[in-house]
Amino acid sequence: MSPHPLDQALALAHSDLRAGLFNGTTSADYWNMVGPFGGTTAALMLQAVLKHPELLGAPVALTVNYAAALEAGPFEVLAVPVRTNRSTQHWTMQMAQADADGKLQVVGTATAVTALRRETWGANDLPMPQVPAPAEVERLAIGPAKVAWVDRYEMRPIRGSIPTRWDGSGDHSETLMWLRDAPPRPLDFAALAALCDGFYPRVWLRRAKPVPIGTVSITTYFHVDATQLAEVGTGYLLGRAAGQQFRNGYFDQAAQLWSQAGALLATSNQIVYFKE
Amino acid sequence: MSPHPLDQALALAHSDLRAGLFNGTTSADYWNMVGPFGGTTAALMLQAVLKHPELLGAPVALTVNYAAALEAGPFEVLAVPVRTNRSTQHWTMQMAQADADGKLQVVGTATAVTALRRETWGANDLPMPQVPAPAEVERLAIGPAKVAWVDRYEMRPIRGSIPTRWDGSGDHSETLMWLRDAPPRPLDFAALAALCDGFYPRVWLRRAKPVPIGTVSITTYFHVDATQLAEVGTGYLLGRAAGQQFRNGYFDQAAQLWSQAGALLATSNQIVYFKE
Q: Which residues are in the Acyl-CoA thioesterase-like C-terminal domain (chains A, B) (predicted)?
């Protein structure tokens, strides 16, 4: 059985040149309009941390800044543990790709915080919305989509599906949908980081107008540990995403992902460039 | 007239050693329990970008990771424009402080995106909550507070004020309050970055229990330009903050800041360590 497309997309080979330096190649399976799906880029930045021999604990926070669209082909990711404390570790990452002249150019920057987590009091102040079960919601029928990455996810929109008529009739920016990798794949931190970017641009929904867009920065907080992720397995996640402010070329998106059992697995925010 | 305490706290001298390297000193006026107020640290990271000779545009996104508590005294901030595009610029920052042996240690990392913004279509999908005017809300009377920084802000809590009885009776994590610098100071990006961290720990409100805490990472998106900030002047901002998930030593906080006129100036998220 061949590896899952996501595992192929996230494959990183450790370079001999320097500790924390990894080599990868962009994946056609997760291609977006003018570069790779930003979710896989975020997952790759995290993957470099997760594969680093000095890793302490598990991801708590991840911020990825998209400095330039990657070209199809090889790239490198450097992950550096700049500060290691007793129970937390601070990381800086940078993704680079050779330009036409073979000169390495920075295409993305990132930071992460990993930590050893202990059991404490807890509470969820953002309960999962009441929605019909995945089986009762029709799968978004787009495959083969114009962009490859959309076919790598099983999306079952409950509210705020991608507009079918681009007539400027939009009046809200909230999407609620069940989603998981397609084909199904057991959930882990890298996959969750990618899923947090699995919502189409809020501005398209809000305006019912497909203007050019590009995420410039995404920040994801992980609220669970590896054991809790493993319990989710290949189950569906309920994703919610909404825009908060659209102004002068940028809008933000607040997103949350719950397990089908109602555990808030991750909260994620991004800011996105848009034209017009 | 002596400079505003915030301007003293954010004073950075450009080092001759390297472009983008700045020297500063911690401010007693904004001291917190075991280090400086995290808001001023975030503002200082941004300040290094704003004072950089190669700056393009204005802040759109800022992420600051708190790697260690600063000691009282001098520190340095290095801001590097790692990628400059036609209308966006990507920054990495690092704050360092000499340890007992005089060896520089990383105490914080950060990234920022600045951009030239053009007028576009816009919409606010997170309208300002209906609340009484600042004059109708009593000012939080804590001064002189146990911690200095709290006295640097005029806070008028409408909902979710800091508990007066630590009896474990908490049942929500939302605070709504009018706030501004004290004494009043015309709003700018650095002050706004600091104000986004002006909410006391959500876990204290949620549990009515003052457990040890520490912000590990904060991300702020700026939705306005310098002109729009100038229009706010010394007016009050309406701040809203709420926890979303508290689990195994960490909780997140989603915050929004509106101008008194109802413009959503910034949206900010942070993840915070807590004990027990």
A: 139-273
Instruction: Report the C-alpha gap between B52 and B82 in whole angstroms.
Output: 13
C-beta neighbour count of A272 within 10 angstroms: 22
**What number is the ipTM of this complex?**
0.97
pLDDT band at B144 (very low <50, low <70, confident <90, very high): low
Quote the radius of gyration of chain A (alpha carbons, Å).
Answer: 18
Residue in A67, A244, A250 nearest the CB of B90:
A67
Say if CB B61 and CB B71 are below 8 A apart.
no
Task: Give just the sign of the alpha carbon dihedral B159, B160, B165, B170.
Answer: positive
Contacts of A269 in chain B (CB under 8 A): 219, 221, 267, 269
Tokens representing residue B77 in the block:
């901030």
The amino acid occupying position A258 is: W
Exposed/middle/buried for residue A1 (C-beta within 10 Å: 0-12, 13-18, 19+): exposed
Q: Which residues of B touch A63 (CB under 8 A)?
A: 63, 111, 217, 219
Q: Under a CB-based contact definition with an 8 Å cutoff, are residues B174 and B129 in contact?
A: no
Answer yes or no: CATH 2.40.160.210 is held by domain A5-117+137-274: yes
Could you read off the pLDDT of A72-108 as tens digits, one per residue?
999 999 999 999 999 999 999 999 999 999 999 999 9
pLDDT tens-digit readout, B101-117: 999 999 999 999 999 99
Report the candidate in A233, A269, A251 with the shortest Cα–Cα distance to residue B255.
A269
Look up the pTM and report it.
0.98
Nearest residue to A178 (alpha-carbon basis) of A112, A240, A91: A240
The Cα B114–Cα B88 span in angstroms is 6
CA–CA separation, A11 and A106 (whole Å):
20
Q: CA–CA separation, A253 vs A237, rounded Å?
A: 18
CB contact under 8 A, A248 and B271: no
**Average pLDDT of the segment spanning B245-252:** 98
